[in-house]
Give the backbone structure.
Amino acid sequence: MISEVTDASFREYVQRSPKTMAYFYGINCPRCKQVFQVIEELSAEAGVGFAFAKACDAEAPKTFRQMGVASVPTVIFFTGGHEVSRLSERITKHALKEIINRG
């Protein structure tokens, strides 16, 4: 399951989950839609222990600024609420799986 987060809920969501993949996307971004399909597949495969969140530029502009998200799509991985990895623009299923598998 992928949870939609906003400026009000982002920090709490990331901090309460041991491991989180946060997907930052633009509402009018064609590439973002393609990447989201991959993330949906990965969320079904990942199982327990990994949380998936998505944040839209229109719904979470403050979070985009605070996290330094300058382009979409961007995926940020968190462990214990701290950023551990980031991918932007050229996001592939292989690259995402590699980070998830590193744990």
The two ends are 18 Å apart (CA to CA). Residues 2-102 form a domain with the Glutaredoxin fold (CATH 3.40.30.10). The chain has four helices and five strands. Helices lie at 10-16, 30-46, 61-66, 93-102.
